[in-house]
């Protein structure tokens, strides 16, 4: 078994070797590979184009012909399961609290909570595994112990269940909307009214399944906001969520025509984002409060603005 590395993906390859039979003499390499190894012809052509096919020890092209009795060797890569949790410590993840039931962390930007299709970067669950933190086994394999999520581009405080009992209790508390989730968002312009509630269902965007939008057939979604600071180009809001839909704050603010600063996915001004040095949406989970699943006491944890958000806010304040 040969091991290859390609970027951050973990790839293994299996070398297969066969003699070319008389019946395939004169056939193209890609046709012969497809028939001999049970691959599609397009897959066989890809392997040849990648230099993974050898005939009698020499790399060959897909259109070369096969002589009978020659040795055909093919390296067939197989990418590891993209949903597999990989133990990898992540710089910047801070532990705010840990006990036998829960671990509360401060998640930096650029880190996913758990593995997902298309994501090859660092994850919270991978970091916890590398750090020796055992979490609950409830839930899908790639997101065991996860009771809430933050976007890759959103930073801040979140909780992960370590015990099965904590997982069950916290999951139900999130469903019952008993968790206090507080965010700060810097949005373009000035929302009118300065304090209000957005009650609008959210579903997948009809033109792009990686985006979301307000839709009549979407899931119920409720966002409360209050203006903390109003500046020339943007307003700093405190946001409380009743529901926890994917991209909820970003979608609702965009629907109000006041997208999060830097959120180019949902209509933010790229010129302003560049001026502020932002490469992601200005959105941060500042506080999380809940009833501890074991002690029954109400606990609350907070997170300060990371450097990129704090710097952008100071520029906005200085522009008045």
UniProtKB/TrEMBL annotation:
<feature type="active site">
    <location>
        <position position="151"/>
    </location>
</feature>
<dbReference type="Pfam" id="PF01479">
    <property type="entry name" value="S4"/>
</dbReference>
<dbReference type="InterPro" id="IPR020103">
    <property type="entry name" value="PsdUridine_synth_cat_dom_sf"/>
</dbReference>
<dbReference type="InterPro" id="IPR006224">
    <property type="entry name" value="PsdUridine_synth_RluA-like_CS"/>
</dbReference>
<comment type="similarity">
    <text>Belongs to the pseudouridine synthase RluA family.</text>
</comment>
<protein>
    <recommendedName>
        <fullName>Pseudouridine synthase</fullName>
        <ecNumber>5.4.99.-</ecNumber>
    </recommendedName>
</protein>
<dbReference type="Pfam" id="PF00849">
    <property type="entry name" value="PseudoU_synth_2"/>
</dbReference>
<keyword id="KW-0413">Isomerase</keyword>
<dbReference type="GO" id="GO:0000455">
    <property type="term" value="P:enzyme-directed rRNA pseudouridine synthesis"/>
</dbReference>
<dbReference type="InterPro" id="IPR036986">
    <property type="entry name" value="S4_RNA-bd_sf"/>
</dbReference>
<dbReference type="InterPro" id="IPR002942">
    <property type="entry name" value="S4_RNA-bd"/>
</dbReference>
<feature type="domain" description="RNA-binding S4">
    <location>
        <begin position="27"/>
        <end position="91"/>
    </location>
</feature>
<keyword id="KW-0694">RNA-binding</keyword>
<comment type="function">
    <text>Responsible for synthesis of pseudouridine from uracil.</text>
</comment>
<dbReference type="InterPro" id="IPR006145">
    <property type="entry name" value="PsdUridine_synth_RsuA/RluA"/>
</dbReference>
<dbReference type="GO" id="GO:0003723">
    <property type="term" value="F:RNA binding"/>
</dbReference>
<dbReference type="InterPro" id="IPR006225">
    <property type="entry name" value="PsdUridine_synth_RluC/D"/>
</dbReference>
<dbReference type="GO" id="GO:0120159">
    <property type="term" value="F:rRNA pseudouridine synthase activity"/>
</dbReference>
<dbReference type="InterPro" id="IPR050188">
    <property type="entry name" value="RluA_PseudoU_synthase"/>
</dbReference>
């Amino acid at each position: 078994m040969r091991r290859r590395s390609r970027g951050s993906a973990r790839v293994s390859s299996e070398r297969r070797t066969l003699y070319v039979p008389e019946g395939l003499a004169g056939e193209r390499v890609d046709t012969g590979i497809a028939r001999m190894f049970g691959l599609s012809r397009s897959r066989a052509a890809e392997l040849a184009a990648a230099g993974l096919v050898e005939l009698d020890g020499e790399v060959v092209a897909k259109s070369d012909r096969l002589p009978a009795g020659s040795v055909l060797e093919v390296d067939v890569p197989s990418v590891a399961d993209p949903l597999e949790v990989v133990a990898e410590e992540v710089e910047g993840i801070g532990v705010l609290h840990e006990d036998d039931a829960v671990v509360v962390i401060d998640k930096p930007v650029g880190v996913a909570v758990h593995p997902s299709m298309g994501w090859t970067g660092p994850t919270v669950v991978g970091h916890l595994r590398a750090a020796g933190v055992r979490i609950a086994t409830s839930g899908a394999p790639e997101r065991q112990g996860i009771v809430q999520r933050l976007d890759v581009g959103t930073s801040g405080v979140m909780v992960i269940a370590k015990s099965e009992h904590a997982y069950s209790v916290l999951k139900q508390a999130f469903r019952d909307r008993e968790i206090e989730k507080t965010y700060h968002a810097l949005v373009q312009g000035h929302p009118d009214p300065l304090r209000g509630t957005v009650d609008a269902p959210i579903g997948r965007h009809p033109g792009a399944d990686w985006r979301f939008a307000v839709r009549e057939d979407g899931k119920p979604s409720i966002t409360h906001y209050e203006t903390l600071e109003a500046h020339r180009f943007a307003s700093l809001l405190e946001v409380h969520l009743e529901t926890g839909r994917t991209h909820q704050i970003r979608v609702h603010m965009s629907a109000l025509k006041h997208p999060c600063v830097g959120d180019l996915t949902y209509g933010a001004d790229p010129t302003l984002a560049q001026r502020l040095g932002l490469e992601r949406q200005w959105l941060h989970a500042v506080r999380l409060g809940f009833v501890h699943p074991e002690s029954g006491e109400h606990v609350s944890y907070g997170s300060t603005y990371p450097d990129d958000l704090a710097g952008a806010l100071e520029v906005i304040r200085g522009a008045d």
